[in-house]
Amino acid sequence: MSVNFVACSDDDDDNPIVGTWRGEVVDDGKGYSDSYTFNADGSGIWQEFKDGKQIDSESFKYSLDGDKITFTWSDGETYTSTFSISGNRLTIKDNSDSVTYTKQ
Fold first, then answer.
1. Residues 40-58: tens digit of each pLDDT
2. Closest CA to 102 of 29, 36, 28
3. What is the DSSP string of 11-36?
4. 46 in Cβ contact with 38 (< 8 Å)
């Protein structure tokens, strides 16, 4: 009799940023929100919503280095932000702006 065990790693355990994170965009209460989806392979997509309906999106590649995240957008633009994760909340900070997202 032979018994085999297979263990699969959970990408979320290896890279806590992997997943979909949703935030609110401050726009005088006009119903806008956005989300980032980070995939384990370093790709992702940003989406913007108005009243729950997608109105814009853009794909990107990302890399992490400590508390820095570098985005390379589909149009070739690259920028680096700082980020932190606490529980199910992701905060991305650019210069003086900071946006917090909740993991979905």
1. 999 999 999 988 899 999 9
2. 36
3. HHHH-TT-EEEEEEPPSTTS-EEEEE
4. no
